[in-house]
């Protein structure tokens, strides 16, 4: 492996499907998802919220960047990586204010590889930035990110739970068009709400349930009661968390409140477990500058994390 480079592991050597993060057909879907979400659910602290906001703003700018825009699912996965990283590491933003942007760029590059789309152009997405990161710096940061994620790059996100909840609420495929419309709207709501930092406080399963209830209320109002009953029957969905998540999602997307039906006969628990965050030493970050080769005003070039981070 060349210096400053990293490679996807063999099991990730094909396109990662956000709706189905597993590689083995033998996996039992919901049991495996619930077991995995505790390792993948981010929990961004208040101290990291500023860094998260800066990274999210850059990813959003790239997503809507006209001819340079990235696919929405690449942007979605990239911000998921940002959240998971910040759950485990802290960025020295006061000393290195460019650190959140380096994290965002590296997560965008990593997400594009996982989604098997056209590679993100490191130079193009930084076209209007004062500070520029070169390829080597971004590759080093990618190694830092995948290390912090413990190489679990096939993220378990709320999108992975949509199929399960839809099958629970629609046990018979009698309304395929309506089911597809509800799912599409739920995906849209999740993507739109993701930049809201409070969404990172909820487990993927709870976020998926809240999005589906909101979508059903808009797209399939006549069957909303069936959706509410189906979600309430799931023993792993905490009704209080579901209500809170629905309120955050509604505020972020400008939709009506999510109504969750509670079942007196069904115990509710949350199975997600957040791992404790570990801080990165401020001395592990360095910054240098060099003149840009192009004409006009010189741009500063940031060196990023040192090679020993890998």
TrEMBL record:
**Does Cell division count among this protein's keywords?**
yes
Q: Which Pfam families does the record match to this protein? A: Cyclin_N (PF00134)
InterPro entries per record? Cyclin (IPR039361), Cyclin-like_dom (IPR013763), Cyclin-like_sf (IPR036915), Cyclin_N (IPR006671)
Tell me the segments the record calls region Disordered: 274-310
Q: Where does the record place the Cyclin-like domain? A: 57-147
**Annotated Polar residues bias:** 277-286
Give the protein name, as stated in the record.
Answer: Cyclin-like domain-containing protein
Q: Which organism's genome codes for this protein?
A: Panicum hallii
């Amino acid at each position: 492996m060349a210096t400053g480079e990293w490679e996807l592991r063999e099991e990730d050597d094909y396109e990662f499907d956000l709706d189905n993060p597993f590689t083995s057909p033998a996996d039992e879907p919901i049991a495996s998802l619930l077991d995995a979400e505790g390792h993948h659910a981010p929990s961004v602290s208040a101290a990291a919220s500023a860094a998260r906001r800066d990274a999210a703003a850059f990813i959003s700018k790239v997503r809507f960047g006209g001819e340079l825009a990235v696919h929405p699912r690449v942007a979605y996965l990239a911000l998921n990586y940002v959240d998971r990283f910040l759950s485990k590491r802290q960025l020295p933003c006061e000393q290195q204010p460019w650190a959140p942007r380096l994290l965002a760029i590296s997560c965008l590059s990593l997400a594009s590889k996982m989604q098997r789309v056209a590679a993100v152009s490191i130079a193009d997405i930084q076209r209007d930035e004062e500070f520029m990161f070169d390829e080597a710096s971004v590759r080093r940061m990618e190694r830092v990110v995948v290390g912090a994620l413990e190489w679990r790059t096939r993220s378990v996100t709320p999108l992975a739970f949509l199929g399960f909840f839809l099958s629970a609420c629609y046990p018979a495929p009698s309304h395929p068009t309506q089911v597809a419309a509800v799912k599409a709207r739920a995906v849209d709501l999740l993507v739109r709400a993701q930049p809201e930092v409070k969404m990172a406080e909820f487990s993927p399963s709870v976020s998926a349930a809240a999005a589906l209830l909101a979508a059903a209320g808009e797209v399939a109002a006549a069957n909303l009661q069936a959706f509410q009953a189906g979600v309430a029957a799931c023993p792993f969905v905490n009704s209080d968390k579901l209500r809170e998540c629905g309120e955050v999602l509604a505020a972020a997307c400008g939709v009506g409140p999510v109504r969750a039906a509670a079942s007196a006969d069904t115990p509710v628990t949350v199975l997600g477990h957040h791992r404790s965050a570990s801080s990165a030493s401020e001395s592990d970050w360095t910054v240098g500058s060099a003149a840009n080769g192009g004409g006009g005003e010189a741009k500063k070039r940031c060196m990023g994390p040192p090679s020993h981070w890998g």
